Amino acid sequence: MGKSDHSVLLIYASSHANNAESIPKLNLNKGNYSELRKFLDINWDLLLQPYVNNVEMMWNAIKSKLLEGVNRYIPSTTPFSVWKKVKWKRPLDIEIRNTIKQKSILWKRYIRSKDPSVLIQYKKVRNIVRNKTRQAEKRNQNEIANKCRSNPKHFWKYVKSKTTNKEPIGDLKFTDNLGNQVLATSDDHKAETLCNFFSSVFNHEKDESFAKLESKNCTYISELPVFSMDDIKNRLQKLNVNRSPGPDGIHSRILSETANEIAYPSIEVNV
Fold first, then answer.
1. pLDDT single digits (tens) 123-146
2. Nearest one of 175, 225, 230, 166 to 200, comparing CA atoms
């Protein structure tokens, strides 16, 4: 990018958004991993023999077998954000949802009849709902706190949801091209003001001013890496299962749970 440490690409693009269809999400906590391990406990040499001279084809064969097992033994579910109501913060179990429905039915019945006995029943169910939802909130907080080291993303997401200041950047005062003091109040105006300020410190260099780099010969020859079965197993089992899957669509939880079964074909790919 040249000599400057502050190089910027300015790109103008027009875009529009379409309503994306909801993609089913794997429910990894309810997966049948024992059956998945049995499904992957096969003769990998026989499966990979036709592709022994093609690493890409070998990996595709392993990936296809692994994804086939995932489709069989890992259930999928619709993301909570698709079907949740506006006031819902997290999924609730079926017992709490049924109690909430019962509370709603009793309230409608009281509105129609104005019966004091129905009101008493409604208040009892309302108190039960409040107690159960508070207990669910406490369990959720304890789970987040216990897993804050292994899953910090979830922890900071919860912290951010509890912050009171939803707009961290206040109004910005700046001087325009005519020397007048202007106050930026809208989000777009603030973004444009910050963009103009930071771009003002960048160096403007011509394409002809690049320094010619010296050509150097590399005399170091690296040795081929050697992988052992135990090393691959340990690395697979220590994967962070809270990470999202990569471009291949295989979640790290799947790799960690099936480390003993896929360690051998992984070595065959790297030989």
1. 999 999 999 989 988 998 999 999
2. 175
